[in-house]
Specification:
Blueprint: H1 3-8, E1 17-18, E2 30-33, H2 41-55, E3 65-71, E4 74-81, H3 87-100, E5 107-116, E6 134-140, E7 143-147, H4 149-155, H5 159-170, E8 179-193, E9 198-205, E10 208-209, H6 218-234, E11 245-247, E12 252-253, H7 259-275, H8 280-297, E13 298-301, E14 304-307, H9 315-327, H10 335-347, H11 370-384, H12 388-408, H13 414-429, H14 432-449, H15 477-496, H16 500-520, E15 542-544, E16 547-551, H17 552-568, H18 581-587, E17 609-610, E18 625-627, E19 629-630, E20 645-647
Parallel strand pairs: 17-19, 18-20
Antiparallel strand pairs: 1-6, 2-9, 3-4, 3-5, 5-8, 6-7, 6-8, 8-9, 9-10, 11-12, 11-16, 13-14, 15-16
């Protein structure tokens, strides 16, 4: 089907612009009991919508409204009104349509145009994608239609592409001024019926309800994990093949495959199975998947076992295939292959501690991934049986990769694999070098990558790992998952050595990451309103807020992270600060005499936390870790900073006196009682 054919019938309903929904983070889900309404259901729901709009503090336009009814992945009803006073009538017409369809099941989405010609330049570079943020008004002036933002999201296409194609097909060259092609911001709300009596009105952002930070709990995380595991289970086909990629907008499997992700998917199933040994059907699926992968991709070369796909034999795939067998209950069934794979990892190790990352190939790329995946395998071998030779090799690789490679060009992809491997070996050796490496890597990861309350972070982006300032690629659900896998081990280490501040920081980062995961998960039929086969996506995780593509590693990494998090954290541990100190300092510059040891001090994305001109007179920072803090011009008279760890601070122009306690490495200046420079 061509692009024009695909969109012809769809565009009869409406046409697009992007919704900048900065205010949605403050909106809460709401419900309306029919038995308690006095003005009728549609009137009550319309009032609730207006309340949510008013709560955002922005004056709405009176450019009318549009409504859509979605059932089984298709729009079954579409209508629009010329003014806001007809919202109640629109809602009533949509509900009547649901009733005519029989069961009344379906999703109603109300679209309220807010303003046109929206400037998206305030959105940060990698996330300026217009999918789902704006909609449009298109058509002839006498008969234009609205294309709502959620409709753009449903097609997983860029707004500009849709508008350009529609304009090209429909504008009359002889009367171009009669054609409307305006980009608009919208407020969108989903209206759903739970049981015939309770109706809910929830704001939408990029076609999904915003998951609040407060809603993340151990119970909600357990539900998230179960949904992930159920999708993984269903995705193992009858012959044992694991589904690799799915396109929700097309309701079909996409082309592509990757052996590293396939065997990591097997590992995730194995770990879920080990956590649920009573599930016999799950164990059968695990063995079926292992059998398929080994039969299809295992090869013997030069007395070694390798995983071959498209004439490539990657170190990462070899290591993860061995790990899948190692952790499973079926190691004896695959003993020959298991030993061959381990021999291959040894063959690819070099005497300087590095690894060759491809067998029988000159390629030697992906050094941030494959060696760490191999060291993770080796850490399991060392934990099971002491091996001095292997431990020596492991430590030599730590010296090469952490001590040399990562220091020259740090990359977040490096961190979780090495963290997991180092922690498992640290539990055996108690090597201070491994502890220091884990803390420094994860301190840097959280500081550099995680987004929360910084400028321009939208409500649905909170908790994800992405850096505008660093060229580490666009945000990706699989990255969040693998970072969670590393952070839980960093947290465990912090608890083991009684480093309470780091334990709190890593725990906070994990809970915030879970919020991002829950935002991206297809949790129910409402999230899957545009999918023709909801069962195909239920429990899965889309790639990002602006790309609904499902890939198996989006699910597997998050599942493995949650398995360990749920084993480790208590319900109380899920209660974390809802804002960093960056958020608090924006509205409060007076912390005179305060004990600040419990605050989350750090800059984000390499930017300094700005204490400039702040009153910290007599304040006590305790043993805080203050990442990139700028105290220029701050009043530090009588303040105690002596126990804090600075990475690195600025003190230029700060006011101090004889009672000010500074770290030993921060020298005082006799020039007007100020501390100068970017000292550490």
């Amino acid at each position: 089907m061509t692009f024009d054919q695909k969109w012809l019938s769809f565009l009869l309903f409406s046409f697009a612009i992007i919704f900048v929904a900065m205010g949605l983070s403050g909106c809460e889900y709401s419900s309306q009991d029919i038995s308690k309404t006095s003005g009728g259901l549609s009137h009550s729901l319309a009032n609730k919508v207006e309340q949510l709009v008013a709560a955002k503090g922005k004056k709405p336009s009176d450019q009318g409204a549009a409504i859509r009814v979605w059932k089984k992945g298709e729009i079954t009803y579409a209508a629009q009104a010329d003014n806001r006073g007809q919202i109640s009538a629109l809602i009533e017409s949509a509900i009547e349509n649901l009733k005519k369809e029989g069961s009344g099941e379906g999703v109603v989405i109300l679209c309220l145009p807010r303003n046109m010609n929206v400037d998206l330049e305030n959105l940060r570079g990698q996330e300026r994608s217009r999918k789902g943020l704006l909609g449009a008004r298109l058509g002839q002036r006498s008969e234009s239609r609205w294309l709502c933002p959620h409709e753009v999201t449903a097609q997983n296409l860029e707004l500009d592409m849709i508008v350009d194609q529609f304009t090209l097909k429909n504008m009359n060259p002889t009367e171009p001024l009669d054609f409307i092609g305006e980009k608009w911001a919208f407020d969108e709300f989903v209206i759903t019926n739970k049981d015939g009596r309770i109706w809910e009105v929830n704001p939408l952002l990029r076609g999904k309800r915003v998951v609040s930070a407060e809603s993340v709990s151990k119970a909600s995380t357990q539900k998230t994990a179960q949904l992930l595991a159920d999708w993984m289970f269903r995705s193992v086909q009858a012959d044992g093949r694991m589904l690799y990629k799915w396109q929700p907008s097309e309701s079909q499997e996409a082309k592509g495959n990757n052996m590293i992700r396939q065997f990591m998917a097997t590992v995730s199933l194995v770990r879920w199975g080990n956590a649920h040994p009573e599930n016999e059907e799950l164990q059968k699926k695990i063995k079926l998947n292992l059998e398929y992968n080994i039969k299809s991709f295992y090869r013997e070369m030069d007395g070694l076992g390798v995983i071959e796909f498209r004439n490539k034999r990657k170190l990462g795939a070899i290591a993860l295939a061995a790990l899948a067998i190692h952790e499973s209950k079926f190691r004896q069934d695959f003993d020959k292959q298991y030993r061959g794979l381990i021999r291959a990892t040894q063959k690819m190790w070099q005497t300087n501690g590095s690894f060759r990352t491809h067998y029988r190939s000159k390629k030697n790329d992906n050094q941030n991934f494959y060696p760490g995946e191999t060291l993770l395998l080796w850490s399991y071998l060392l934990a099971e049986k002491g091996d001095e030779k292997l431990l020596t090799q492991f430590n030599k690789s730590v010296d090469y990769y952490y001590g040399h490679y990562h220091q020259i060009k740090p990359n977040p992809a490096f961190v979780p694999w090495h963290t997991q491997a180092y922690y498992r070996v640290w539990k055996i050796s108690q090597d201070v070098k491994l502890k220091t490496a884990i803390f420094r890597m994860n301190d840097w990861l959280v500081e550099t990558m995680q987004e929360w309350d910084g400028h321009g972070v939208l409500a649905d982006e909170k908790g994800r790992f992405s850096s505008e300032a660093k060229p580490f690629g666009p945000p990706h659900a699989s990255s969040t998952g693998v970072y969670l896998e590393g952070l839980i081990d960093a947290y465990r280490l912090a608890v083991d050595v009684k480093d309470g501040l780091r334990a709190k920081r890593y725990r906070t980062a994990m809970v915030r990451g879970i919020r991002s995961l829950q935002q991206l998960q297809f949790k129910d039929s409402i999230d899957a309103y545009y999918v023709k086969n909801p069962d195909a996506v239920l429990g899965s995780v889309q790639t990002s807020v602006s790309d609904n593509t499902i890939r198996v590693d989006n699910v597997q990494h998050n599942l493995m992270g949650l398995i360990q998090i749920l084993e480790t954290l208590t319900e109380e541990d899920f209660r974390v600060p809802q804002e960093t100190f960056r958020g608090r300092i924006i509205s409060n510059r007076n912390f005179s005499g305060k004990n600040l040891s419990d605050y989350d001090f750090h800059g984000t994305n390499g930017k300094h936390l700005d204490f400039t001109g702040t009153n910290l007179r007599g304040a006590d920072l305790g043993r805080s870790i203050c990442w990139h803090c700028d105290f220029s011009g701050a009043d530090l008279r009588g303040a105690d900073l002596s126990q804090a760890e600075f990475l690195p601070p600025r003190f230029e122009g700060a006011r101090i006196d004889d009672r000010t306690k500074l770290p030993f490495h921060v020298s005082r200046s006799l020039n007007l009682g100020m501390v100068k420079g970017d000292q550490q």
